[in-house]
Amino acid sequence: MGGREFAVFYVTTPIYYVNARPHIGSAYTTIAADVLARYHRLKGDDVFFLTGTDEHGQKIEQEARLKGVSPKELADSVVEQFVRCWKTLGITYDHLVRTTDSYHEEAVRHLFSLLQNKGDIYRATYRGPYCIPCESYLRPSELKDGNCPLCGRPVILLEQENYFFRLSKYQRVLLTHFENNPDFVLPRSRYNEVLNRIREGLDDISISRTAFKWGVAVPNDPEQVIWVWFDALTNYLSGIGYPKDSERFERYWSCAVHLLGKDILWFHACIWPAMLFAAGLTPPKQMFVHGWWTVEGEKMSKSRGNVVYPEEIVEKFGCDQLRYFLLRETPFGQDGDFSEEALVRRINNDLADELGNLLNRVVGMAQRYYGGKLPERPAEVAFSELVGKATALPERVDAHLERFAFSVALSDIWDFIRLMNRLIDHTKPWELRKKGEEERVAALLHNLVDGLRVVSWLLEPFMPDAASQMRRQLDAEDEEADWQTRIAWGRSKGGQRLERGRILFRKHSE
Ligand SMILES: [Zn+2]
To answer: How far apart are the CA of 147 and the centre of ligand 1, in A?
Structure first.
């Protein structure tokens, strides 16, 4: 098999901030992680898929006060919306970590004390610009027209006693790690971006706050709250049992793959590995940085009123349809543009006209010619182009998924679907029947049933519902078989009952 095989696979999404319900952006990362988790489970790997919610910080404290509820009550109600949304999207996470969970807070305090005892966390006075919405300390040189470079809003000048993390100490270690692991951060442009910034030099960073209370208190100094990013990043450890369940933690941590958006690259690719080095732990195995979605060419924002909510799209178009669209429309790593028009085009063309129609033709052929029952497998069944493509396809898809190239994997699968449609057009089974070439018609049908079964398994992580519906109609459910058997060629049998089920993908008016 090509590509690396993970016997253990640990995949994470960022934890989502509970100041808003999930939108298409958070759904995007989570669906991508779900596809990887489902794929590795199919292959028989030991998988752990972690997502979570980020619930501390000044913004939450302020918003809760405005709403007249406690921060925890506010968090609870938003977390409920996340849980419901993930269910609607078919997300199969193994655990959802909440930063207000006591085991997580304990892990944060543990990590903090560990770094403090080592001398990598120290107390000092901070003077400088600070952005409240971003909860970020900034260098004066970073400001854009006096405003925050991250959000563009005005900053305040802050002077306070804080705890600092010796990030500067880890510059060389980080550079070595980047140089030895060229695939540590993907895509390569993001790797270069971080590497160049690390080369410019690193300042120690403040990792505590005193302006608010809603957070994890610094051990033995309750006036200070641990910085939300220190708190949040630790979820990747606490979510798999750190520090108490060392067996579970060690099994998964060495295989950690983080998926994240480009806005939080620096925290994940520089600060986080430095924290881990300080704690005597290894950095995650790999991280992949994806792009953002605009909506009909515009930035998505509450104030523009153009935020796309996944549940509404699922309600109107279906879950598999949305999952397919997000991963097919734009290469993972680049920015994408969402519009219902583009979604409908994908549904009508790729899903209904190409995949749905192919299944229909195959089931229809079996019913028209053989009363729905596959004839005996003829001795000579190979349509060589089809067989060649079908046997190479699983390995190609595997290699693409190893590189997070979801859209390429899907596009390869669709090339094969189109090939099967063309094969029917060119072979013209209706004419073969008139000419009495019965063997060849039977052979064609067996090849198509085999091909569709392989396609259904490769699509299973992306569109679980449609994929199992396909196999039901093909009488090829294979629930007990292992992955290699499921994707093997030449397993169609005489007597298999092909039956029409519900329509796979309904078309929408454009
Ligand atoms: Zn800001």
So the answer is: 8
DSSP 8-state symbol, 95: E
Q: How far is the CA of 457 from the centre of ligand 1 (A)?
A: 45
User: Is the Cβ–Cβ distance between 127 and 169 less than 8 Å?
Assistant: no
| Cα gap 429→432, rounded to integer Å | 5
Task: Give the Cα separation of 271 and 259 in Å (integer).
Answer: 16
Distance, CA 228 to ligand 1 centroid (Å)? 14
Please determine, for residue 4, whether its predicted confidence score (pLDDT) is greater than 50: no
Which tokens belong to 388? 């060649």
Which residues are in the CB-under-5-Å shell of ion ligand 1? 131, 133-134, 148, 150-151
Report whether 206 contacts 229 (CB < 8 A). no
CA separation, residue 459 to residues 323, 397, 468, 497 (Å)? 11, 10, 9, 22
Q: Which amino acid is located at 166 in the chain?
A: R
The one-letter amino acid code at 312 reads: E
In terms of DSSP H, where are the helices of 126-238? 171-180, 188-199, 228-233, 235-238
Mean pLDDT of the chain: 95
Q: What does the DSSP assignment read for 104-147?
A: HHHHHHHHHHHHHHTTSEEEEEEEEEEETTTTEE--GGG-BTTB
Q: At residue 476, what are phi and psi to the nearest 5 degrees? A: -135, 50
Q: Is the pLDDT of residue 12 over 90?
A: yes
Q: The whole model's pTM is what?
A: 0.94
The pLDDT, as a whole number, for residue 1 is 39
Q: In angstroms, what is the span from residue 20 Cα to ligand 1's centroid?
A: 17
Say how many Å lie between the CA of residue 57 and the centre of ligand 1: 14
Give me the phi and psi of 193, to 5 degrees please: -55, -45
Ligand 1 center from residue 133 Cα (angstroms): 5
pLDDT of residue 156 exceeding 60: yes
* Alpha-carbon gap, residue 435 to 120, rounded angstroms: 82
- Distance (angstroms) between ligand 1 centre and the Cα of 490 equals 58
Round to the nearest angstrom and report the end-to-end CA distance of the chain.
42
* CA 153 to centroid of ligand 1, rounded, Å: 6
Torsion sign, CA atoms 296, 406, 229, 24: positive
Distance (Å) from CA 415 to ligand 1 centroid: 45
- Going by C-alpha positions, the residue among 130, 133, 14, 129 that lies closest to residue 63 is 133
- Beta strands, E only, 307-380: 336-338
